Amino acid sequence: MTAQSTSTPTSAAAPPSTSAPTSLTARLNQVQPYALGLFRIVVGLLFACHGVASLFGLIGGTAIPAGTWPGWYAAVIQLGAGVLVLAGLGTRTAAFLASGSMAYAYFKVHQPESLLPLQNGGENAAMFCWAFALLVFTGPGALALDRLFGAGEATEAKAREDRAAPVTA
User: Which of 61, 157, 141 is nearest to 95 (CA)?
Assistant: First the structure.
């Protein structure tokens, strides 16, 4: 009986810790640049593949005759901007151009057929448009060639500065 009276309370009696969500959030915040970099790489690769398929008729595509408006020019943008975004070189500028190209594709080619992307076949254009718009505002994330040339450091420093500044109405 004396052993029971001198034992310490078990951890089951302790209140649950509230730091678990904070630590998960902190861990997710630590890997955020890498997740963003992976997102950029995948989106750039998929976009470049569309350009390759349209320009050269490879990987299941049909080649568009050179100079055909707007398809051939869109394919050039897809290949060029896709490769730049994939590599993380001039990501914001390339993503801005790609996003605009996909907005044009959606509103000029798909939207006149029907309002919703599911009905007019414009899901790819809409998703690429918004994915590239996101990259315009977030930047390239980790694993970008911009960081090798120092351009990413200035952009990242400016982004940290902007996040620290209070928003006024």
Answer: 141
